[in-house]
Amino acid sequence: LDRLVRALAEAERPAIVAGPAPLAQRGARADVATLTRATGAVLFADATSQLRFTGGALPGRVFAFDAALRSATGRAALAPDLVLQLGAPPVGKGWELLAAERSAPTRYLVAPAGWPDPMSDARGLVRADVGRTAAAVVERLRGGAPGGPRPSALAFRARWEAVDAAAARAAVEIATEGFGEPAVVRAVVDALDAGDLLMIGNSLPVRHLDTWASHRVRDVGVLSQRGASGIDGLIAGGAGAAAASGARTVALLGDVSFLHGAGGLALTRALTAPFVVVVLNNGGGRIFEQLPVAGRAGDAIGHFTTPHETDLQHAARLHGAHFARVASESALRSALGEALGRTACTVLEARVPDDGARGAGARLFAALHDAMAQLAGDGA
Predict the structure, then answer these.
(1) Rounded distance, CA 13 to CA 40, Å?
(2) Is residue 358 packed enough to be buried (19+ CB in 10 Å), middle (13-18) or exposed (0-12)?
(3) What is the C-alpha separation between 219 and 51, in angstroms, rounded?
(4) 171-210: per-residue pLDDT in tens?
(5) In sequence order, what DSSP letters do the residues of 181-242 get, joined into one string?
(6) What is the pLDDT of residues 21-35, one digit of tens each?
(7) 32 touches 130 (CB < 8 A)
Protein backbone atom coordinates (compact mmCIF):
# COMPACT_ATOMS: atom_id res chain seq x y z
CA LEU A 1 0.00 0.00 0.00
CA ASP A 2 2.80 2.43 0.84
CA ARG A 3 4.44 1.83 -2.55
CA LEU A 4 1.12 2.34 -4.30
CA VAL A 5 0.43 5.55 -2.38
CA ARG A 6 3.85 6.95 -3.29
CA ALA A 7 3.27 6.11 -6.95
CA LEU A 8 -0.14 7.82 -6.96
CA ALA A 9 1.19 10.89 -5.17
CA GLU A 10 3.97 11.30 -7.73
CA ALA A 11 1.95 10.51 -10.88
CA GLU A 12 1.42 13.30 -13.40
CA ARG A 13 -1.27 11.45 -15.38
CA PRO A 14 -2.91 8.89 -13.09
CA ALA A 15 -5.74 6.63 -14.22
CA ILE A 16 -7.95 4.11 -12.44
CA VAL A 17 -9.07 1.26 -14.69
CA ALA A 18 -11.95 -1.07 -13.81
CA GLY A 19 -12.84 -4.18 -15.80
CA PRO A 20 -15.57 -6.83 -15.46
CA ALA A 21 -16.68 -7.30 -11.86
CA PRO A 22 -19.48 -9.01 -9.95
CA LEU A 23 -22.48 -7.07 -8.67
CA ALA A 24 -20.84 -6.90 -5.23
CA GLN A 25 -18.43 -4.25 -6.54
CA ARG A 26 -21.30 -1.77 -6.41
CA GLY A 27 -20.42 -1.52 -2.73
CA ALA A 28 -17.06 0.04 -3.63
CA ARG A 29 -18.49 3.00 -5.54
CA ALA A 30 -18.27 5.57 -2.75
CA ASP A 31 -14.68 4.65 -1.88
CA VAL A 32 -13.61 4.70 -5.53
CA ALA A 33 -15.21 8.14 -5.91
CA THR A 34 -13.27 9.40 -2.89
CA LEU A 35 -10.06 8.03 -4.38
CA THR A 36 -10.59 9.78 -7.72
CA ARG A 37 -11.23 13.06 -5.89
CA ALA A 38 -8.09 12.68 -3.79
CA THR A 39 -5.81 11.82 -6.71
CA GLY A 40 -7.40 13.68 -9.62
CA ALA A 41 -7.24 10.42 -11.56
CA VAL A 42 -9.32 9.76 -14.64
CA LEU A 43 -11.59 6.74 -14.22
CA PHE A 44 -11.87 4.26 -17.10
CA ALA A 45 -14.99 2.32 -16.11
CA ASP A 46 -15.73 -0.69 -18.29
CA ALA A 47 -19.46 -1.16 -18.85
CA THR A 48 -19.33 -4.41 -16.84
CA SER A 49 -17.38 -2.95 -13.90
CA GLN A 50 -20.43 -1.83 -11.81
CA LEU A 51 -18.86 1.65 -11.91
CA ARG A 52 -20.52 2.96 -15.06
CA PHE A 53 -24.28 2.73 -14.51
CA THR A 54 -24.25 4.01 -10.94
CA GLY A 55 -27.19 6.35 -10.43
CA GLY A 56 -24.92 9.37 -9.93
CA ALA A 57 -21.72 11.03 -11.01
CA LEU A 58 -18.29 9.59 -10.32
CA PRO A 59 -15.47 12.17 -10.44
CA GLY A 60 -13.24 11.76 -13.47
CA ARG A 61 -15.25 8.97 -15.08
CA VAL A 62 -15.03 8.80 -18.87
CA PHE A 63 -16.84 6.42 -21.20
CA ALA A 64 -14.94 6.59 -24.50
CA PHE A 65 -11.57 5.35 -23.27
CA ASP A 66 -11.63 2.16 -25.33
CA ALA A 67 -12.48 3.93 -28.58
CA ALA A 68 -9.89 6.66 -27.98
CA LEU A 69 -7.09 4.24 -27.09
CA ARG A 70 -7.61 2.14 -30.20
CA SER A 71 -5.79 4.73 -32.28
CA ALA A 72 -2.08 5.45 -32.12
CA THR A 73 -2.99 9.15 -31.91
CA GLY A 74 -5.08 8.54 -28.80
CA ARG A 75 -2.45 6.43 -27.10
CA ALA A 76 0.23 9.04 -27.82
CA ALA A 77 -1.85 11.98 -26.61
CA LEU A 78 -3.83 10.44 -23.75
CA ALA A 79 -1.73 7.67 -22.23
CA PRO A 80 -1.54 7.72 -18.41
CA ASP A 81 1.81 7.36 -16.67
CA LEU A 82 0.34 5.33 -13.81
CA VAL A 83 -2.58 2.91 -13.77
CA LEU A 84 -4.38 1.45 -10.79
CA GLN A 85 -6.31 -1.56 -12.11
CA LEU A 86 -9.33 -2.63 -10.08
CA GLY A 87 -9.99 -6.32 -10.62
CA ALA A 88 -9.92 -7.82 -14.11
CA PRO A 89 -8.62 -5.83 -17.10
CA PRO A 90 -11.20 -4.12 -19.33
CA VAL A 91 -12.70 -6.02 -22.24
CA GLY A 92 -11.94 -3.56 -25.02
CA LYS A 93 -9.14 -3.60 -27.56
CA GLY A 94 -7.94 -0.08 -26.71
CA TRP A 95 -6.75 -1.03 -23.25
CA GLU A 96 -5.04 -4.13 -24.61
CA LEU A 97 -3.14 -2.03 -27.19
CA LEU A 98 -2.03 0.47 -24.54
CA ALA A 99 -0.87 -2.23 -22.14
CA ALA A 100 1.13 -3.96 -24.89
CA GLU A 101 3.18 -0.90 -25.87
CA ARG A 102 6.84 -0.71 -24.89
CA SER A 103 6.10 2.57 -23.12
CA ALA A 104 3.11 1.13 -21.26
CA PRO A 105 2.27 2.91 -18.01
CA THR A 106 3.36 1.65 -14.62
CA ARG A 107 0.55 -0.48 -13.28
CA TYR A 108 -0.63 -1.73 -9.88
CA LEU A 109 -3.46 -4.17 -9.28
CA VAL A 110 -6.14 -4.44 -6.62
CA ALA A 111 -8.16 -7.64 -6.67
CA PRO A 112 -10.00 -9.65 -4.01
CA ALA A 113 -8.83 -12.93 -5.56
CA GLY A 114 -6.81 -14.36 -8.39
CA TRP A 115 -4.01 -12.78 -10.40
CA PRO A 116 -5.64 -10.60 -13.09
CA ASP A 117 -2.43 -9.71 -14.90
CA PRO A 118 -2.35 -11.38 -18.32
CA MET A 119 0.51 -9.07 -19.38
CA SER A 120 2.59 -10.20 -16.37
CA ASP A 121 4.15 -6.77 -15.88
CA ALA A 122 2.31 -5.21 -12.93
CA ARG A 123 4.53 -3.61 -10.28
CA GLY A 124 2.46 -4.97 -7.45
CA LEU A 125 -0.79 -6.65 -6.43
CA VAL A 126 -2.90 -5.81 -3.42
CA ARG A 127 -5.07 -8.86 -2.85
CA ALA A 128 -7.95 -7.34 -0.95
CA ASP A 129 -11.43 -5.87 -1.27
CA VAL A 130 -11.48 -3.00 -3.80
CA GLY A 131 -13.49 -0.59 -1.63
CA ARG A 132 -11.48 -1.19 1.55
CA THR A 133 -8.23 -0.78 -0.38
CA ALA A 134 -9.38 2.48 -1.98
CA ALA A 135 -10.31 3.81 1.47
CA ALA A 136 -6.93 2.78 2.90
CA VAL A 137 -5.09 4.52 0.06
CA VAL A 138 -7.04 7.74 0.60
CA GLU A 139 -6.30 7.63 4.35
CA ARG A 140 -2.56 7.36 3.66
CA LEU A 141 -2.68 10.07 1.01
CA ARG A 142 -4.39 12.49 3.37
CA GLY A 143 -1.84 11.70 6.03
CA GLY A 144 0.96 12.85 3.70
CA ALA A 145 1.57 16.16 2.00
CA PRO A 146 -1.62 18.28 1.84
CA GLY A 147 -2.81 20.20 -1.18
CA GLY A 148 -5.05 17.81 -3.08
CA PRO A 149 -4.52 16.47 -6.60
CA ARG A 150 -1.62 17.63 -8.73
CA PRO A 151 -2.53 20.29 -11.33
CA SER A 152 -1.06 18.04 -14.02
CA ALA A 153 -3.46 15.25 -13.02
CA LEU A 154 -6.45 17.57 -13.23
CA ALA A 155 -5.27 18.86 -16.62
CA PHE A 156 -4.93 15.29 -17.86
CA ARG A 157 -8.45 14.53 -16.66
CA ALA A 158 -9.76 17.63 -18.44
CA ARG A 159 -8.26 16.47 -21.74
CA TRP A 160 -9.98 13.12 -21.39
CA GLU A 161 -13.28 14.78 -20.54
CA ALA A 162 -13.06 16.88 -23.71
CA VAL A 163 -12.48 13.79 -25.83
CA ASP A 164 -15.29 11.99 -24.02
CA ALA A 165 -17.71 14.83 -24.78
CA ALA A 166 -16.74 14.71 -28.46
CA ALA A 167 -17.34 10.95 -28.50
CA ALA A 168 -20.77 11.40 -26.91
CA ARG A 169 -21.80 13.91 -29.57
CA ALA A 170 -20.56 11.67 -32.37
CA ALA A 171 -22.32 8.62 -30.89
CA VAL A 172 -25.66 10.41 -30.81
CA GLU A 173 -25.26 11.53 -34.42
CA ILE A 174 -24.25 8.07 -35.66
CA ALA A 175 -27.01 6.31 -33.70
CA THR A 176 -29.67 8.43 -35.43
CA GLU A 177 -28.42 7.63 -38.94
CA GLY A 178 -30.37 4.40 -39.15
CA PHE A 179 -31.40 1.26 -37.31
CA GLY A 180 -28.19 -0.51 -36.35
CA GLU A 181 -26.24 -1.65 -33.33
CA PRO A 182 -25.76 1.88 -31.91
CA ALA A 183 -29.51 2.57 -31.94
CA VAL A 184 -30.33 -0.82 -30.39
CA VAL A 185 -27.83 -0.44 -27.54
CA ARG A 186 -29.01 3.07 -26.72
CA ALA A 187 -32.66 2.00 -26.74
CA VAL A 188 -31.96 -0.89 -24.37
CA VAL A 189 -29.97 1.24 -21.90
CA ASP A 190 -32.59 4.01 -21.99
CA ALA A 191 -35.33 1.48 -21.16
CA LEU A 192 -33.66 0.43 -17.89
CA ASP A 193 -34.60 1.91 -14.53
CA ALA A 194 -32.79 1.92 -11.21
CA GLY A 195 -32.69 -1.59 -9.78
CA ASP A 196 -32.93 -3.35 -13.14
CA LEU A 197 -30.36 -5.88 -14.34
CA LEU A 198 -28.67 -6.06 -17.73
CA MET A 199 -27.14 -9.35 -18.91
CA ILE A 200 -24.73 -8.46 -21.70
CA GLY A 201 -23.55 -10.91 -24.34
CA ASN A 202 -19.94 -11.40 -25.32
CA SER A 203 -18.21 -10.79 -28.65
CA LEU A 204 -19.70 -7.60 -30.12
CA PRO A 205 -22.56 -6.77 -27.67
CA VAL A 206 -20.29 -6.08 -24.67
CA ARG A 207 -18.07 -3.90 -26.85
CA HIS A 208 -21.11 -2.11 -28.28
CA LEU A 209 -22.29 -1.38 -24.74
CA ASP A 210 -18.96 0.31 -23.97
CA THR A 211 -18.99 2.27 -27.22
CA TRP A 212 -22.57 3.30 -27.83
CA ALA A 213 -24.47 3.41 -24.53
CA SER A 214 -25.68 6.86 -23.62
CA HIS A 215 -24.22 8.67 -20.63
CA ARG A 216 -27.31 8.04 -18.54
CA VAL A 217 -26.19 6.66 -15.21
CA ARG A 218 -29.21 5.06 -13.55
CA ASP A 219 -28.19 2.44 -11.00
CA VAL A 220 -28.25 -0.71 -13.12
CA GLY A 221 -26.39 -3.93 -12.34
CA VAL A 222 -24.53 -5.39 -15.32
CA LEU A 223 -24.09 -9.16 -15.50
CA SER A 224 -21.41 -10.73 -17.66
CA GLN A 225 -20.20 -14.30 -18.16
CA ARG A 226 -16.79 -14.13 -19.73
CA GLY A 227 -15.81 -17.78 -19.92
CA ALA A 228 -13.81 -19.65 -22.52
CA SER A 229 -17.02 -20.36 -24.42
CA GLY A 230 -18.61 -16.98 -23.97
CA ILE A 231 -21.57 -17.59 -26.28
CA ASP A 232 -22.96 -20.41 -24.13
CA GLY A 233 -25.47 -20.19 -21.30
CA LEU A 234 -26.25 -16.47 -21.39
CA ILE A 235 -30.03 -16.85 -21.48
CA ALA A 236 -29.92 -19.37 -18.64
CA GLY A 237 -27.63 -17.07 -16.63
CA GLY A 238 -29.92 -14.09 -17.14
CA ALA A 239 -33.00 -16.13 -16.24
CA GLY A 240 -31.28 -17.35 -13.09
CA ALA A 241 -30.41 -13.79 -12.08
CA ALA A 242 -33.99 -12.67 -12.67
CA ALA A 243 -35.32 -15.58 -10.60
CA ALA A 244 -32.90 -14.98 -7.73
CA SER A 245 -33.32 -11.20 -7.60
CA GLY A 246 -36.90 -10.65 -8.70
CA ALA A 247 -35.60 -7.68 -10.70
CA ARG A 248 -36.61 -6.71 -14.20
CA THR A 249 -33.87 -8.16 -16.39
CA VAL A 250 -32.85 -7.53 -19.98
CA ALA A 251 -30.41 -9.79 -21.83
CA LEU A 252 -28.75 -8.17 -24.85
CA LEU A 253 -27.21 -10.90 -27.01
CA GLY A 254 -25.98 -11.57 -30.50
CA ASP A 255 -27.87 -13.98 -32.74
CA VAL A 256 -25.24 -16.74 -32.49
CA SER A 257 -25.31 -16.55 -28.68
CA PHE A 258 -29.10 -16.74 -28.79
CA LEU A 259 -29.02 -19.87 -30.96
CA HIS A 260 -26.45 -21.55 -28.70
CA GLY A 261 -28.40 -20.73 -25.54
CA ALA A 262 -32.01 -20.99 -26.75
CA GLY A 263 -32.61 -24.01 -24.51
CA GLY A 264 -32.31 -21.65 -21.55
CA LEU A 265 -35.71 -20.21 -22.49
CA ALA A 266 -37.20 -23.30 -20.84
CA LEU A 267 -36.19 -21.80 -17.49
CA THR A 268 -38.23 -18.64 -18.08
CA ARG A 269 -41.63 -20.28 -17.68
CA ALA A 270 -41.37 -20.09 -13.89
CA LEU A 271 -40.22 -16.45 -13.70
CA THR A 272 -42.33 -13.93 -11.80
CA ALA A 273 -40.39 -10.89 -13.01
CA PRO A 274 -40.14 -9.40 -16.51
CA PHE A 275 -37.34 -10.98 -18.53
CA VAL A 276 -36.54 -9.63 -21.98
CA VAL A 277 -34.07 -11.10 -24.46
CA VAL A 278 -33.04 -8.56 -27.10
CA VAL A 279 -31.30 -10.31 -29.99
CA LEU A 280 -28.94 -8.22 -32.11
CA ASN A 281 -29.37 -10.20 -35.31
CA ASN A 282 -26.67 -9.19 -37.80
CA GLY A 283 -26.58 -12.53 -39.55
CA GLY A 284 -23.74 -14.25 -37.71
CA GLY A 285 -20.62 -13.59 -35.66
CA ARG A 286 -19.65 -10.29 -37.21
CA ILE A 287 -16.81 -9.59 -34.81
CA PHE A 288 -14.64 -11.79 -37.05
CA GLU A 289 -14.98 -9.24 -39.85
CA GLN A 290 -13.15 -6.79 -37.57
CA LEU A 291 -10.29 -9.15 -36.64
CA PRO A 292 -7.04 -9.80 -38.55
CA VAL A 293 -8.43 -13.09 -39.88
CA ALA A 294 -10.76 -11.11 -42.15
CA GLY A 295 -7.80 -9.94 -44.22
CA ARG A 296 -6.62 -13.50 -44.81
CA ALA A 297 -9.82 -15.53 -45.07
CA GLY A 298 -11.24 -13.96 -48.25
CA ASP A 299 -14.37 -15.77 -49.38
CA ALA A 300 -13.90 -18.27 -46.54
CA ILE A 301 -14.84 -15.63 -43.91
CA GLY A 302 -18.27 -17.30 -43.71
CA HIS A 303 -16.66 -20.19 -41.87
CA PHE A 304 -15.95 -17.71 -39.07
CA THR A 305 -19.04 -15.49 -39.18
CA THR A 306 -21.37 -18.55 -39.47
CA PRO A 307 -24.27 -16.79 -41.22
CA HIS A 308 -27.67 -18.47 -40.87
CA GLU A 309 -31.27 -18.09 -41.94
CA THR A 310 -32.86 -19.27 -38.70
CA ASP A 311 -36.34 -17.98 -37.82
CA LEU A 312 -35.87 -17.07 -34.16
CA GLN A 313 -39.55 -16.79 -33.34
CA HIS A 314 -39.94 -20.58 -33.36
CA ALA A 315 -37.49 -20.93 -30.45
CA ALA A 316 -39.40 -18.32 -28.47
CA ARG A 317 -42.79 -19.85 -29.08
CA LEU A 318 -41.54 -23.36 -28.33
CA HIS A 319 -40.95 -22.21 -24.77
CA GLY A 320 -44.05 -20.04 -24.43
CA ALA A 321 -42.23 -16.70 -24.69
CA HIS A 322 -43.69 -13.65 -26.34
CA PHE A 323 -41.94 -12.64 -29.56
CA ALA A 324 -41.66 -9.53 -31.70
CA ARG A 325 -39.42 -8.60 -34.59
CA VAL A 326 -38.55 -4.90 -34.79
CA ALA A 327 -36.99 -2.95 -37.63
CA SER A 328 -36.82 0.59 -36.24
CA GLU A 329 -35.66 2.34 -33.10
CA SER A 330 -39.13 3.62 -32.28
CA ALA A 331 -40.58 0.11 -32.62
CA LEU A 332 -37.87 -1.30 -30.36
CA ARG A 333 -38.43 1.34 -27.69
CA SER A 334 -42.18 0.69 -27.74
CA ALA A 335 -41.69 -3.09 -27.59
CA LEU A 336 -39.24 -2.76 -24.68
CA GLY A 337 -41.74 -0.68 -22.73
CA GLU A 338 -44.43 -3.33 -23.20
CA ALA A 339 -42.11 -6.25 -22.43
CA LEU A 340 -40.76 -4.72 -19.22
CA GLY A 341 -44.32 -4.30 -17.98
CA ARG A 342 -45.14 -7.95 -18.62
CA THR A 343 -44.46 -10.67 -16.01
CA ALA A 344 -43.18 -13.13 -18.55
CA CYS A 345 -40.36 -13.73 -20.99
CA THR A 346 -40.25 -11.73 -24.22
CA VAL A 347 -37.84 -12.20 -27.12
CA LEU A 348 -37.27 -9.11 -29.28
CA GLU A 349 -35.36 -9.65 -32.51
CA ALA A 350 -33.68 -6.50 -33.82
CA ARG A 351 -32.59 -7.23 -37.39
CA VAL A 352 -29.74 -4.87 -38.22
CA PRO A 353 -27.48 -4.62 -41.30
CA ASP A 354 -24.86 -7.35 -41.50
CA ASP A 355 -21.92 -4.96 -41.86
CA GLY A 356 -23.34 -1.98 -39.99
CA ALA A 357 -21.15 -2.30 -36.89
CA ARG A 358 -17.92 -1.98 -38.82
CA GLY A 359 -19.05 1.17 -40.63
CA ALA A 360 -20.46 2.83 -37.51
CA GLY A 361 -17.26 2.12 -35.60
CA ALA A 362 -15.13 3.59 -38.36
CA ARG A 363 -17.16 6.83 -38.31
CA LEU A 364 -16.83 7.12 -34.54
CA PHE A 365 -13.07 6.53 -34.64
CA ALA A 366 -12.72 9.18 -37.35
CA ALA A 367 -14.65 11.70 -35.24
CA LEU A 368 -12.48 10.93 -32.22
CA HIS A 369 -9.30 11.26 -34.27
CA ASP A 370 -10.39 14.74 -35.36
CA ALA A 371 -11.23 15.70 -31.78
CA MET A 372 -7.85 14.51 -30.49
CA ALA A 373 -6.02 16.30 -33.32
CA GLN A 374 -7.89 19.48 -32.41
CA LEU A 375 -6.84 19.16 -28.78
CA ALA A 376 -3.23 18.70 -29.82
CA GLY A 377 -3.44 21.74 -32.09
CA ASP A 378 -4.87 23.83 -29.26
CA GLY A 379 -2.00 22.77 -27.00
CA ALA A 380 -4.36 21.23 -24.48
Answers:
(1) 9
(2) middle
(3) 9
(4) 989 988 889 999 999 999 999 999 999 999 988 899 899 8
(5) HHHHHHHHHHH--TT-EEEE-TTHHHHHHHHH--S-----EEE----TTTTSSHHHHHHHHH
(6) 999 999 999 999 999
(7) yes
